[in-house]
Amino acid sequence: MFLYNEDIEEEKLVISIPSKVQYDFTFLNNTTEMMKKVEQSQYKKILFSCMEKNINFDKMGAAYLYNMLVFFAKTRSIFIDKPLYQIFHNKVSHSGGEQFDKIDIKKVSRSDIQQCYSIKNDKYVNQIVQILVDFISENNLVLERAREFLITTVGEIFSNAFGHSNEEKVFFMYDIGRYNHKFYLVINITDYGKTIIHNVQSYHEKNFNNKLNSCECIRWAIKEGNTTRLGSGGYGLPTLIDYVCNVAGELLIFSGDSIYALKGTVENILNSKGDFYGTSISMKIPLFDTSKAIMYDEESKRIVSIDLDKI
Hints:
Layout: E1 3-7, E2 12-16, E3 20-21, H1 25-40, E4 45-49, E5 56-57, H2 59-72, E6 77-80, H3 82-91, E7 92-96, H4 105-110, E8 114-119, H5 125-138, E9 141-142, H6 144-164, E10 170-179, E11 182-191, H7 196-208, H8 214-221, H9 236-246, E12 250-263, E13 266-286, E14 292-297, E15 302-307
Parallel strand pairs: 2-4, 3-5, 4-6, 7-8, 9-14
Antiparallel strand pairs: 1-2, 8-10, 10-11, 11-13, 12-13, 14-15
Helix pairs in contact: 1-2, 5-6, 6-9, 7-8
């Protein structure tokens, strides 16, 4: 997807971006390869170029790529050619977490600009989580007890991101799009810092004197009750997975050299093309689904769904 060329004469790495960028699994997986190429490059200068005609970036893809370039700029000298700069200028806007407000479906879905929020501390996390879960609940049939657990779950995802980030900053963005005649809420939460792999491996080496491989680390991290943090219940990812399964959504987690991929009820743990230096969590949640109700089952202590068409 991305092409890499070493310009020996000018001592720089040139990364060519294709004319079409779509925020999906293939794009996200290829960005891990980009991260690894930049990390391993002997050159301080990195040029990002998109010289093709008819450039077509979707707004979340543009924002995700732009955030990566900002991350690279911490350790490298980043140069962007004019066509790519114009894409970022036209499609990406940054705000602080305090500016996140009630979601307006029409405004968001019709806008060509992707709003990306840089959350520099957890002061505004509760506000963001509350607005997100309220929006999901209002546009799907989510019963109150399940709503409470979703608030806790999404809050724990943000807390984990802050706990692992080297920059004490988390990037958050969302969009509302239409795919195959259905509307979806698409969310991304990204921190650049310690990976899930690093944290789980360190925890197991310290406490059990054994080392898990990357995929084993992901498998351990998604099990209910497992956590590397003191005082944390370890229910964030398992509850999120339960919810995504029940609403037939999608969940992608990139961390280190591993991927957790969930689509509906089908899950896979696999190796990525490169390395993601931190953790990127993307989810795709169907909206306006009145065929089922989401509830919390007290007996199993899990989020479940009731098919209303069968009642």
